[in-house]
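Minutes, project check-in
Item: structure for the 210-residue chain
Input as provided by the requester:
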Amino acid sequence: MRLAQRYKGILDWFRVNVPAPKSELHFDSPFQLLTAVILSAQCTDKRVNMVTPALFEAFPDAATMAAASEEEILSHIKSISYPNSKAAHLKGMAQALIANFGGQVPEDRDAMRTLPGVGLKTANVVASIIYDKPVIAVDTHIFRLAHRLGLSEAKTPDKVSADLEKNIPAKDRPTAHHWFILHGRYICTARNPKCTDCGLKEWCKFYLSK
């Protein structure tokens, strides 16, 4: 099967069967989404959603978080993975937003990556969800899915992201991030993927090689 045919079949299936996917993180502003995505590194969205209501009540914007101590931030995120480093990142991120961007999350992902705790994946998530930028964030689920489906053979998340962006139309990229992450999270799981329940079988390199 040609690569272009595989991409077309998979994207067409998602357009029909999952027309309006959404992020599972809860947020009310670009700042809150950026905070939640930083917290979600090596942590589940479910766990993040458990701690962010109290966190956002205490620190609803960059100004209030920048003014808080790391200890105050830490008290709200202790159940999150790597809480000490993430508390430092959140305070630094908020301070940088105040100092450099008027307290607002910048649209440009390169500018976003100057913020503490913000790498390419985090910047891509926020840029695609908030600003509808034609980028695709690659986490562990999307990395696994891209390889199993045969959409990329790249060895790093950044290079997988580049392969996906090269082959997926710009208008579909913000939505494709959600398609892939949700499919990887609930169907194409790391252990015991639910191949019999998967609508992508006829294009999936992993399934067809069995």
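Outcome recorded: The chain has twelve helices and no strands.
No further action items on this chain.
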